[in-house]
Amino acid sequence: MRYDLINNNQLLASYRNSVTSVHFPVGTPTLVAAKDELQTGLEGLLGRKILIQTNLSNASIVVGTVKSSNIIASLGMDQQLTKVGEEGFVILTTKKDQKNVIAIAANSDVGVLHGVFHFLRLLQTGQTIQNLSITSAPKIKYRLLDHWDNLNRSVERGYAGFSIWNWHTLPDYIDQRYIDYARANASIGINGAVVTNVNANATILTKEYLEKVAALANVFRTYGIKIYLTGRFSAPIEIGKLKTADPLNEDVKRWWKNKIDEIYTYIPDFGGFLIKANSEGQPGPQDYKRSHADGANMFAEALAPHGGIVMWRAFVYSNESPEDRLKQAYAEFKPLDGKFNDNVAVQVKNGPLDFQPREPFSPLFGAMTKTPLFMEYQLTQEYLGFSTHLVFMAPLFKEVLDADTYAKGKGSTVAQVIDGSLYGHSLSGMAGVANIGNDIDWTGHPFGQANWYTLGRLSWDHDLSSAQIANEWIRQTFGNDKGLVDTVAKMMLSSREAVVNYMTPLGLHHIMGYGHHYGPAPWFDKASRADWNPVYFHRADSIGIGFDRTSKGTNYLSQYAPELRKKYEDISTCPEDLLLWFHHVSWNHKMKSGRTLWEELCYKYYSGVDSVRRMQKEWNSLEKQVDKQRFQQIKMLLAIQEKEAVWWRNSCLLYFQTFSKMPIPPNYEKPDHTLEYYKNLNFPFAPGNGK
Amino acid sequence: MRYDLINNNQLLASYRNSVTSVHFPVGTPTLVAAKDELQTGLEGLLGRKILIQTNLSNASIVVGTVKSSNIIASLGMDQQLTKVGEEGFVILTTKKDQKNVIAIAANSDVGVLHGVFHFLRLLQTGQTIQNLSITSAPKIKYRLLDHWDNLNRSVERGYAGFSIWNWHTLPDYIDQRYIDYARANASIGINGAVVTNVNANATILTKEYLEKVAALANVFRTYGIKIYLTGRFSAPIEIGKLKTADPLNEDVKRWWKNKIDEIYTYIPDFGGFLIKANSEGQPGPQDYKRSHADGANMFAEALAPHGGIVMWRAFVYSNESPEDRLKQAYAEFKPLDGKFNDNVAVQVKNGPLDFQPREPFSPLFGAMTKTPLFMEYQLTQEYLGFSTHLVFMAPLFKEVLDADTYAKGKGSTVAQVIDGSLYGHSLSGMAGVANIGNDIDWTGHPFGQANWYTLGRLSWDHDLSSAQIANEWIRQTFGNDKGLVDTVAKMMLSSREAVVNYMTPLGLHHIMGYGHHYGPAPWFDKASRADWNPVYFHRADSIGIGFDRTSKGTNYLSQYAPELRKKYEDISTCPEDLLLWFHHVSWNHKMKSGRTLWEELCYKYYSGVDSVRRMQKEWNSLEKQVDKQRFQQIKMLLAIQEKEAVWWRNSCLLYFQTFSKMPIPPNYEKPDHTLEYYKNLNFPFAPGNGK
């Protein structure tokens, strides 16, 4: 939303020539918001006053729907408009009464708003606005941020301060941040916000809190954003004074129906519920020997008359089962395929475990044919260095979207599952667990904003490449200087592989600190359940390291399509970047590079640190091109990232060395602390651990 | 720190004539900070580039110390400079080589910084800068903010978000807010910050955390601000692995000595400790049958060689004693007078209870002759409507400072106790419990900033009047338009009496909600100890209301000087604004107004609400003179204040009515809810309650 004056004089002159006036219909709050945004944006970018005119002159921007604007109606854009649906837009260079105009048109006011933001983005990113002919519609219907925000304003796994929702002063006080949040989301096409934590609190469903939620919904509505809540499954007991929360009990069903009807009296366009049930201690239908489908359908029935949906999370693993944790979600949900009501989607994390730096895609993608699956990504960097590491996530997201499930033969990508095209579902969704807090810069790390941006852009159009998204974001954030854009893009695009290398190379996973998840702790083995312990996941011993999930091991691989099974089963065809995810591999195993596994592990950890140091050099080269405050800020953050990358590298290698008994190759810098030193580090107040 | 262009053209022209260049010595980080501030400030205010010159020209500002600046040294200002001490400054219009100059001079670099801020304030508040002859030195030596900030970033009794200290990213990441915080404090002369909660955590004393504290100290040092910590009395056990924390035990003394020596290796100018001991469950010397003096002196001995001080809080009341809670601090501390080491001050809350809207001054003021007493005010509005009520505290602070203790005869004001002049103490101090959080505007309510400002200005010069302080603050915050200044001043200056009236008129106290202290709960009687219950304090019954603290009651009055005792003992001479503080008064008691007590109580509660409604009207009249965002923000906050004032009024009167059995006079608007409704309100997530 930085509308700084364009500093390329030629471009500025050309833009000024093409935009001399703006025609905007009077109308709804959404149209007013779009008009204000266009005016503010153009005045900032072009450095001149922009008046909203009534007479059409040359070089006009004409904005609106067929319904709200006679000029738009007269331009004959029906054919283009049929392509863009309810939320999309058309931007067209055309003529009206012999005058050159740029039309920004849509079928709805929200579509107009999206079009205005897109037009501003063209200017912000230095693109031509001659001969425009753009039609754009979202590929995915539900594009959401999931906030893990508690009612006391702590944010579970939040590293950017505390919740931006100040429940105490709502509904009477509307913080400017709520408006700016909605503007930012609308600018990238996000159309829904789940404002409460999946580890839910029933209090949000009381009258007092629904009034607060309604006040937020009123702000969001203008920007085309619907509000969603998380549903505490035991709410009928906790606030409804019932004796049970059994989803087949008539009193319980009636309680939820009444509650949901009540919600719609406060919020007529309420989006629905996101539910975490029977997962990590949360209550759920299995407490009453009912299935996830029974639970989901109870909500679905009550929501259906109002047009609301249920997003039922597939992130479940049993407290009792000795089964490989990674197999459990599939085992639970695959048999339920076809049993969910029409307005239920099952929301699946990108990988089978938990937002690790690299995971294979979840085997549920492709496996459930009758159930719409929503994608859940994590923008907040629970496992990616909190908010002090620069990690651009587009490559991670794209790796999953581009993955081939082979579900309907070769070319059945995860993206096709998610956008509904593979099995013809009309419900489609992509959610990101928000990385937003009340820090002044929203995300703690300025580059965290790029991940929020990515979620919006990819959920609108998953064909965009990581490089395209980075390029757009850099230009809007730091300006259009080519050298700067290239350098920052290089940093961003290499950052995800860097974090994989200095944290969990070669398919390692879940070796972080216990509870708070800060820093490395591959040695940790004190958690109450086996599958919360790093040692459960890396299985290092004198012979080798890695988790055998082939047919000779837990056979987790059986949950994938035969083509993938075959490829991963064989250690010689298994991609090395997931080798230890699927195989227990001997320390002397020869890698493609010619190095032994141990040497390769050392190589990867050291190259992860080297990548960070390269990013530091690249950033330092930009001192003159970035304002002093942001330059210094990011420089300090990169220094922390370097320090922590070294910490990961040293402590992991020193620990794994106690099994491999092999030396760190002599050409590498020596660890500057002992393993004992690292084991004794303590973080009693690490952030993001609040309930 | 708003350096907006001066919009009075005549004044602007005159300032521009008087300030054409600036001469600044090169030098220390503090001088660089002062130079940057002067340059930024002048460029903003005068709307032109200000260059730092080497040649003296006409209309120069010449800045520095005798030591750092040859020009200053040549101006013969020795006489003035001897008056302003280490932190004060001289601002003088004079001539040098036939050129008109304004000299900003001091004996130290920090004094220069203070002088620069004062000079900028002259411009910001539209004062003349002709023929300046200002000498200014602080009347009080230690001018402090006490942060009740926990290491998990919750702030006890904080209503402006969460702690600005991001301990997790310290010491490597220096948030711009730390710098801005230091600038803001320096601009009003605050020279110390206790950065941790008095309900202390020993972790802050570990090596890892001391490195973080040192990073903050490095930022603050440049701005003349020392850092202080709170000392957890049981730290030798908790992190020192000793078996005892007995202050007379040699191992314990040695542990603290070593710990304090260690602190000074990290922070050579560490200020010292603020300690809450044997109070509300905190550990302390009495756990070992030692006195508060024994405890304080242990710290004092270890701090003395480094120049550090101990601030020992007098806020103690026993868990076991059935004595009137208000008498206990005096009973504990008065006998210890003379037993504290030289570098110990006892820090006393302004009143004997706990920061209520109105209290008499604490009887310790004047009673302790051999011990320096520091004043503790509370800026955060624990009992004054949190951060949604506009309450300007200068009148409250001044009421206490101006109060006559009669300790050395008539005219022995609390101010003279605090500034050390009454008993000739060289230690003198005033602290405010900070109202600062990570909200974008620092204090949640924009007018909260005025209280922070007041603390700084009053601790520098307690002779300033409330009106002067309000005037200065308004001009710097909203501009110099006379109508606006007058209107906002009226709102501010009446706001304290308003909150007294709608919350606790006529000397009522401690009738707020239990635990979180949000809203009224005069009916509450379920707390584990009697003196945490509102009913303990108001003592309403069928006969009347109020707490008899005269000689016929608890005789708390005996702790005051005879002159005061006499005045308050007699119901006919007792000031009515503290009537129920000292007397149990019958519902039919005739007040000076001619009304009965019950009628007067109704009158006061209703007039409190009326005052808020008047403030709303006054604010609304300023719509054209205040920027849209701040106008709307404060309008919303005033609406909350009005709603909550009505809530206080209605629920208190309906409750007290159950005792008085008298009607609310017919000319008043009727309560719109029942007493039961108010009693059933519930605030599970009220802010500021975090530990």
- Main sheet: strand order of chain A: 6-7-8-9-10-11-12-13
How much of the sequence lies in strands of chain A comes to 5-15%
Oligomer: homodimer
The chain-level structural class of chain A is alpha/beta
Q: Compute the separation of the termini of chain A in Å.
A: 32 Å
Q: Please, what is the average pLDDT of chain A? A: 96
Number of helices of chain A: 22
Taking pLDDT < 50 over at least 5 consecutive residues as the criterion, the unreliable ranges of chain A are: none
Largest sheet of chain A: 8 strands, parallel, barrel
Shape of chain A: globular
Walk me through what this model shows:
The structure is a homodimer of 691-residue chains. Chain A has 691 residues and is of the alpha/beta class. Chain A contains 22 helices and 15 strands. The first copy, chain A, has helices at 9-18, 29-46, 70-74, 78-82, 109-124, 176-187, 207-221, 235-238, 250-266, 292-303, 328-333, 394-402, 414-418, 448-460, 466-478, 482-503, 534-538, 562-569, 579-582, 597-620, 628-660, 675-679; strands spanning 21-23, 60-65, 89-96, 99-106, 133-136, 142-146, 192-194, 226-230, 272-275, 309-313, 344-349, 373-378, 429-433, 544-545, 585-586. Chain A has an 8-stranded parallel beta barrel with strand order 6-7-8-9-10-11-12-13. In chain A, strand 1 (21-23), helix 2 (29-46) and strand 2 (60-65) form a beta-alpha-beta unit. In chain A, helix 14 (448-460) packs across helix 15 (466-478). The longest helix of chain A is centred in the last third of the chain and has 33 residues, at 628-660. Chain A is globular, with a radius of gyration of 26 Å. The model of chain A has no long low-confidence stretch (mean pLDDT 96).
